[in-house]
Design goal:
The structure is a single chain. The protein is built from eleven helices and no strands. It is mainly alpha-helical and about 240 residues long. Helices cover about 80% and strands about 0% of the residues. The protein has one domain.
């Protein structure tokens, strides 16, 4: 319990879960960016996958709008499955340095995009055509790096949908991808019954972090807090890129 790495992992889980509860997204990406500085990315993904499922479930219950999300974005969520398979194949065969490099670039791109906060909008008529493309691309990035927010998050933010529908849709995608990741990690012996018991302990600090984040979300203006998170994401991406 006093091991520095254990303390660092718990800190990463709580901080990422707090941000997840505050914004409804970002747990896996931020947690992986922190952990990848001291832990191999494949091990970090194994630590994150179970707590990620819990954080997704907590936010999905709060957000509602499940039927609307499925009706509008079912093809996007489904297209993430083959993309995920390709990305996971890359993760299995690649050097850890390559995966960390990709993750750092993804973080920097997403953080800069979120900070810009421009008013770009995608026409509703293009959604059916773009859904499978965005889902497939998100699956590839997620499988290769463990990050679940790019390019799906910039895409959803560019659509004329409510905040609750956005949060529900993004967490539906997160949940499906996390389940696929869990099966894949088990198949490549990165995740077994013993490690599942160990990593499941992360559920406790994550539940606390998501709950606290949900409380704070009602007190702090979302735009201001989101910009702070984007600065954090870019900083973590730069640190990974330098290292």
């Amino acid at each position: 319990m006093s091991d520095p790495i254990f303390i660092f992992v718990v800190f990463a889980l709580v901080l990422s879960a707090f941000i997840k509860g505050s914004l409804g997204m970002g747990f896996s990406t931020i947690c992986l960016a922190i952990l990848a500085n001291i832990i191999e990315l494949k091990t970090a993904i194994s630590i994150v996958v179970l707590p990620s499922l819990l954080s997704n479930a907590m936010v999905m219950i709060e957000a509602g709008n499940l039927r609307i999300s499925l009706r509008l974005f079912f093809t996007m969520i489904l297209a993430g499955i083959p993309g995920m398979a390709i990305g996971l194949l890359f993760l299995r065969q690649s050097d850890n340095t390559v995966s960390v490099l990709i993750l750092s670039i993804v973080l920097i791109l997403y953080g800069c995009w979120g900070w810009a906060n421009h008013e770009f909008r995608i026409a509703d008529k293009l959604i059916p055509k773009l859904n499978p493309v965005i889902g497939f691309a998100t699956g590839i990035v997620n499988g290769a790096t463990g990050s679940q927010i790019f390019p799906i998050m910039p895409y959803l933010l560019s659509l004329n949908i409510s905040k609750d529908v956005l949060v529900q849709t993004i967490n539906l995608s997160f949940t499906l991808n996390s389940l696929i990741m869990l099966v894949f990690l088990y198949s490549m012996n990165t995740f077994d019954a013993n490690s599942m018991v160990t990593y499941s302990l992360g559920i406790i600090p994550v539940a606390i972090g998501v709950w606290l984040g949900g409380k704070v979300r009602k007190q702090i203006p979302e735009t201001r807090f989101k910009r702070m998170v984007m600065i954090l994401i870019v900083t973590l991406g730069l640190l990974l890129l330098v290292s």
